[in-house]
Amino acid sequence: RQGRVRMPSPANDDEWVDVSKGEDESTAYYTYIDDRTHLSPVYAAGDLRYVLRVPKGAIVNEAKRVAKALHGCNACIHRAGIYVRDLGPSGPVFLHNLTCGIAAPCAEVTKLRELAEDLAEQACQSCQQHELVVVTDATYAPVREGKCAATGEEYGHWTVHPAACSTSEAATRYSKLARYYGQMDVRLAKLTVPEALASVNIMLEEQPHLERPEHYAACLRWVKTLQRHAVEQCTTGSGAFELMSLADKAKLRVLAILHGRVEGATHLDFHQSDNIVDFLTLPSRDALRAEMDSRSDPRFYMVSQLNRKLASAGVTSRHLIGLTWDGKFTDDLDIHVKTPSGNKIYYGNKSADGCTLDFDANVTQGEANPCENVSCKPGTFEVSVDNYTRRTRGAVPFQVVCRQEGMPDVVYDGTWPANRAKGRLLLVCRHTFTEAREEPGGLAMSAGAAGRAKALAGEWSAKIGEPTAVVATTDDLAGACGATVYRCGRATEPAQVGRVFMSMAASTSNKTAPAADPVRRKKAFLSESVKRHPTTVSELVAHVQAHPATQLAVRARDHAPGYMVSLATKCAGVRKTDLPAPCHFHDKHALPVKPVRATVGNARLDRSWLPCMSPNGYVRVSAVVDVAGSCPFLALEGAALPTCGEAFPLASGFYPTDLSADYHAHRERWAFYHSQLKPRVPADAKEGAVTLVGAFLTGDKAIVYMDGVQLTLKT
Question: How many CB atoms neighbour CB 389 within 10 A?
């Protein structure tokens, strides 16, 4: 068969010239390239069909030379240089029918197939990322292209006959989102390791308990779908993206693009999953719920980026004014704060009157999460905003956050107008910060109780005498029946040193072995942390007993104050027990009572109990005390009985119900001592003894911080 082939010309790309081949050879060649019986397998992901095109190399140039030697057809040369690079699940898709027992029409076709296979092998060894080419009806040029001007015959060229093509819907969606191919890799790697799967399951378990449970529903479904596809549809890597073959990585990328919510050319779930990745390394379920609620609040969605910046910058101010705006606006907004004395704090004057600009944003270029902050003090402040450098068009929305410790955030929404000039400060608010104040109150004593006690004065003097009440210490409980003390944050005991040394040796040996997981992690996953955390107070006690170095802390406002008092009388047996009496403040301005489980009053620890409490309200636990028949007790570091004030009237634990049967007649006088005899601080406590002042765990749940991680424990 004779034919004409396309030859490029500087003047006319459509110029054709004659070439000749023998009739029999041309017929065999044409029959071969038009074979539609043995179609080339292509990759499939959902409704998308695609091939992976390997990078160019020397083999591509060799393929072009072979194609040119066959009959000099420019169309065939061009196609060979591209199609030889395309891979499917069975290898190169170009000239695939040679692998099905079909004879090659000429030596050049055989050589081209060999070159395609060599290129595929090289590409696999190099581990270079391949280009994804969506297979549609128009991906591969038709066999017949061009006509002979003299005879009107159609010319024939080799091509690829794919076994299947993408649906138009899948191809259209992918084309809009093609920029995400490869861009998702880091996120896919983080979301598909085994602990990420377990951590996402925890998120799904906590989702119904959120303030806005539907906020993350779609994104979590997308993440869970990807994790399922990674395990079920990818044959390598055991579900972990980093361990997959190049082909399976490509497949998971495509599935990630084809699933989830889309708005125009934006993959909404991919962008929201940035939050899911952050949640993976949260230290506890409590922290997870708190962070998910914080980030989902539509009013405070930009406040979360300020919180992260404050944490990373180590800002601990009790009063602050923050400015935050969306990262898509690369303008350099600046906060200007006028102090009560009239001085201004901004980028040009970062400190005045004890207030400081902690960090600035978008100075030289746009940041992903721009925000600024000024640490303040009590007083009235005037807050303004300037757009120092305009980089975008249109209005720029922002939020000013005024935060005072112990109070809800006050958020002021603002917008920098499109036509407002630089330097024309926009006044946002005037905000007043205050100091925390004690509530006034009073206490009245009962004179009747003292009068009735006089009738039994003789027996009282002979058997009870003058009772004493001293705040108990851990030494008072040493060897006591029905009470156990577990010290927290203690240094390693000598007997443990050897075990620690051998643990270090084992750890070092393990480090010499090749890592099974190539994803290096600095933080533990949520699921790993949750596994290690106790869920009840009993489990916490067991954990502290097994790990004496555990650091425990509480936040003062989460707990009511309490203490334990050692009572002494002239004769033994006056009380039913020799254990210290528990004194728990259920309500403020009322006498302490015995702690009762599943009850919560309005009293809370404050600086009158914790003079050395940190600015953020946290205090360390020195010991956990478990007393039979009472609520668990936490002895707090630096805690002491208040020395003044009426908010917490001190008492000594003289409960009538504690008297033995022989002394019931004295219950009124005994109860009178409860309010009138104030416990004294032990003067002769041994070194290392812990004074039992702190908090009883009376509620159904208790919030503690174990090694810096917030835990909500069932009591």
Answer: 16
